[in-house]
Amino acid sequence: MALCVEPGIVYHSLMPSKPSHWRRVLAASLLFFAAACAKPQPPAVTPEVARVVRVTSEGVELDVTLGVKNPNAFALDAHEVEGTLIVEGGQKLGTGKSNPNRSIPAHGTGTVQSQVHIAWDDVPALQKFLLQERVPYQFKGSVTLGGDTLHVTLPFEMQGTLTREQLLQAGLRGILNPN
Q1: What residues make up the domain containing 20?
Q2: Do 67 and 95 lie in a common domain?
Q3: Is residue 53 domain-shared with residue 26, that is, in the same domain?
Q4: What domain count does the chain have?
Q5: Cβ contact 95:119 at 8 Å
Q6: Is the CA virtual torsion 99, 153, 77, 105 positive or negative?
Q7: Residue 95 belongs to a domain with what CATH number?
Q8: What is the signed CA dihedral for 155, 160, 166, 172, rounded to 10 degrees?
Q9: d(CA 126, CA 13)
Q10: Do 85 and 148 have their domain in common?
Q11: Are 79 and 118 in the same domain?
């Protein structure tokens, strides 16, 4: 058995270590727990693409792609994408949502792709746009992201264009064959 003496303190080889070692262990533990308990940060959402996939008398299918940057030490899941399709003049054409079920890695980036079906609120309202070659639209939406310690809904906006052919297809079918 070895014996070590410092003023006022006696150690021997059966003791685990000197107090300075325990101070370092305690400090490291406090730093670890402080980092683990850090407040979750909101992710950043960047709209990338809103593309019309299909137009029918019931509505429009939009392929919506969002870029998501996750600054947190835990993964986030994309639970829902929802929004409203608006054309010039503020005319609301309809709303829709989808559940993409995508995961964004911890401290990483990912893409959330979803097909959002937007049911027409008012098919006859499309008639005033049938003479235009192109009708700009805006998709005002939100994406709901969550993990074990964070659950947020973040807004986004995207723009695109509906063609006259797409509107004619939807408008004529809706007028000739109303639900």
Answers
A1: 3-36
A2: yes
A3: no
A4: 2
A5: yes
A6: positive
A7: 2.60.40.10
A8: 50
A9: 87
A10: yes
A11: yes
How far, in Å, CA of 21 to CA of 78, rounded? 44
Check: CB of residue 124 under 8 Å from CB of residue 175: yes
Residues 24 and 59 in one domain: no
pLDDT, tens digit (0-9, with 9 covering 90-100), for 132-171: 888 888 999 999 999 777 889 999 999 988 888 877 776 5
What is the distance between the alpha carbons of residues 49 and 115, in angstroms, rounded to a whole number?
Answer: 11
Query: Does 138 share its domain with 58?
Result: yes
Measure the CA–CA gap between 123 and 111, rounded to whole angstroms: 32
d(CA 58, CA 93): 11
- pTM of the model as a whole: 0.68
Helix/strand/coil (H/E/C) assignment for every residue in the chain: CCEEEECCEEEECCCCCCHHHHHHHHHHHHHHHHHHCCCCCCCEEEEEEEEEEEECCCEEEEEEEEEEEECCCCCEEEEEEEEEEEEHHHEEEEEEEECCCEEECCCEEEEEEEEEEEEECCHHHHHHHCCCCEEEEEEEEEEEEECCCCEEEEEEEEEEEEEHHHHHHHHHHHHHCCC
